[in-house]
Amino acid sequence: MIVSEYLRELPVALGPDRRVTFVQKAGRSLTEIQTQPLTFAALGLWAFRSLGLRAEVDTEGVCHVRVPDSLRAKFGGQAKFDCVFGGQPGDSAGDGPLWFTPASPLGEQVFELVRNGRATLHATPTTQPVSVHELAAALFSCYSVVDGHVRLAGCRLDNRPVLRRTHIHRDAAGTMYHEYFASDGSCLDEQAVASLGLEHVDPLRGTRSRDERQRAQLLLAAVPPAVREDEIAQIDTLIWCKYATGKLHFAIGKHSSELDFEGWTGALVRGEASPPPFRCPHTGCESYEIVAADDGELTVAAALDQCEESGMRVASSQLETCAATGKRVYGEILATCPLTGERVVPSSLRSCKMCGQLVSRSAIKAGRCAACRRLKRIRKDDPRMALVLNEHPRLDQWRNWKPAETADAYVLLAHAALRQTLFVIDKETLRIRYCAISNRWWTRWTMIPDDQHEQVLR
Ligand SMILES: [Zn+2]
């Protein structure tokens, strides 16, 4: 397998063939996967090439090698030599060509130089999806969007390396096996190797981008080479696979949601890896079936629950318990009592007969809310009064004030000789929200319409 790949990038290999066992090391298991002919010629020519030696094989099967100046010292000062691939380890051809096998003196010397040089090959899976169109179709097929659709909101395909380290054994059979490493240095198992299409690769030519060179450096640093005693050499091949990162856009009606995905395109397209399931933003429930809740928000069926007040089906975490009725109610339709902070259905709110504010039933006694029941006389330089008088200077005509507070308003009772005037002033805007009058003794209050507030202040 491996050598047939080298053959594709090397000149036609000649010389006696040997049969070798190819095994693939997957994780911790070492399994024999196939046996096929190996030409030492292919291996030798690859080794010469990776060292920068020029080698040509003639019709007789003799390889003529030219040694560059920089390497002559390593080859006994020779500018060229001839060799024949194959033979038994230790064979000598006398004055004729040298024998080249992984274990012959020449083979050992060449692979020693390869080891030191750490030549790295580049390859790419023979078949892998390279178009966004192909990937999109596979991604979309994972999801079912009820009454809606899914599209790509962005997708980028990068080349990312997997390291294939080929170990060549010193044994007579010349056993070879591959180990595959991911970018974090972890060993890929057989399934991952198959799903990335790493079993069949083509040589990759051309230069790598800066990003790619950095990724390659990190990966090679994560898996330092360690040629063992029983090995002639290790050959590193960086197999560049397409890796996708992007966003999926789901839409039902006017509502939409996005989901990040990433993964090897080969695995995604072959269905051996899946994009993430859609995650309901409210409940965290996950599914590949996306539905719209009755409030339009995208969620998954398992996350839906029914509001007992409105009948709407919404994400269950959006339901709250109404403090007045005990019903599970969609939070968006609940009101918050400004006095108790209770969340209640609006229909359960009661109006205070004195200040007109809508409050929960538990805040009302004898028709008056808790704020109106705790009005206490204060001095006019109370900081709350100072704030209100600054905004409404004409309120200063009253000398005696009794204030109280709710979560969002000041309730101010002004005393005069014959009349009491009550103002509810919004804490945030200081706008007069409500005004009512009563005579000094009666408990009956008359609400003053908004457009008559000015007259009261006159
Ligand atoms: Zn009140």
Q: Which key terms come to mind for this protein?
A:
458 residues; 4 domains; disordered N terminus; five-stranded antiparallel sheet; alpha+beta; eight-stranded mixed sheet; single chain; binds zinc ion; 38% strand
Question: Can you walk me through this structure?
Answer:
- The chain folds into 4 domains: 116 residues, no CATH class; 154 residues, no CATH class; 46 residues, no CATH class; 88 residues, no CATH class.
- With 458 residues, it is of the alpha+beta class.
- The N terminus is likely disordered.
- The longest helix has 13 residues.
- The protein is rod-shaped and about 135 Å long.
- 18% of the residues lie in helices and 38% in strands.
- The protein contains 10 helices and 32 strands.
- A hairpin with a 3-residue loop joins strand 29 and strand 30.
- The strands form 10 sheets. Strands 1, 2, 7, 9, 10, 11, 12 and 13 form an 8-stranded mixed sheet that branches.
- Helix 2 packs across helix 3.
- Zinc ion binds next to strand 27 and helix 8.
